[in-house]
Design a protein that fits this description.
2 copies of one chain form a homodimer.
Chain A lengths: L7 H8 L3 H7 L1 E5 L1 H9 L6 E4 L6 H7 L8 E6 L9 E6 L4 H15 L2 E4 L9 H7 L2 H4 L3 E2 L8 E5 L5 E2 L9 E6 L7 H4 L3 E2 L9 H19 L1
Parallel strand pairs in A: 4-5, 4-9, 5-6, 7-9, 8-10
Antiparallel strand pairs in A: 1-3, 2-3
Amino acid sequence: MISSPDNDRLKTIRKLQQKRWRMKLGLFCAEGEDLVEAAAAAGWEPEFVLRAGEDVEPELLDAVSALGSGTRVIGVYPRRPGETSGPVLAYLHGVEDPGNVGTIIRSAHALAEATVVLGPGCADPFSPKAVRASMGSLFARPPVQAALEELRGNVVALEASGERTLAEADLTPPLVLCLGAERDGLPTALAADAVRIPVAADSLNVAMAATIALHEAVTRMAADA
Amino acid sequence: MISSPDNDRLKTIRKLQQKRWRMKLGLFCAEGEDLVEAAAAAGWEPEFVLRAGEDVEPELLDAVSALGSGTRVIGVYPRRPGETSGPVLAYLHGVEDPGNVGTIIRSAHALAEATVVLGPGCADPFSPKAVRASMGSLFARPPVQAALEELRGNVVALEASGERTLAEADLTPPLVLCLGAERDGLPTALAADAVRIPVAADSLNVAMAATIALHEAVTRMAADA
């Protein structure tokens, strides 16, 4: 039982709160029983798992938690990219908020078993907040880092200022749904022919827009099947 | 310029991080220029507003921020309930996560100019995280605390285990969309005749489910108009 805060595994977990170390070591943390179970279900081998009261003093595990107190288990896993296969991809551009990145990974997996592709300026999908927001979908459908040019398919960009609406868009698979950051949106070239989700007031966040568009795409695919 | 951490206004802001004090004082905080502007745009009079470098030493404002460093402005407002009018209401049951409550307030406002009704067991919509997630929609469409029995309309409950799908549901306004907590879902009576959003794998979070259903409802209303 680990009883010293200077233990190497605890030190590693502390380091992995920083992106720099996650990249350098090629590892990341998943906190909580649900996520560790999701990793196992998806066939991910942990580097190690620490359980409070079994492997480590509970207060020492709490002290290295990135998400607040009460963590019973932390697993450390290798960063592993996914594959850009399947009828739908969600391509994100400049989505800086890790909670939004994780939420879109979850929605894409749940609605369409789809993979998320991260373009420039996105939050690290293996950060603690993104992992938590993905609720295990990160393990089932790990995201890919790639440029839009590398993806093949029917590219449909979503932008609040789009002239046409989502209802008018051709969502024929293989579909590449492109979503931009909350404030800056998509690059001009992509935004030129973008479609919008009609709103009554104000604006949707990027995770909401992605979820609506993914739902619309799979609903139409099911109807056409 | 406030230069002491013992200043009464700073003390009030610190207290308002706790629900107990938000209820007792009937006040809450909004942090950041966007939210303070949204409050003004929606006609909310603040109790007071503190700006870093104008009203208060910047480091003292940072020290009372509930959302991390770098806050330039904090406004304190009276808790004020909204009204249960309009063709669509989103009724939440046991949604404990303040981020989800705030996100649903934002989606309901953006997609349908709709008000969120909070039933038992929901997070305080005036908590710092909920206010932040609502992105100002809290001021434009403040939520209401009420029991489902007090609401009139076409009640449609969403549940992952529903027999019928959202596509098959009658969404005729006035519509009351009912959404439950992530784990426990809705009370049995409501869940009995619930509809589901088809998923390919795993599950959607409650904010995503709400957003999809609200989008579907307004899309159909627009088509029928």
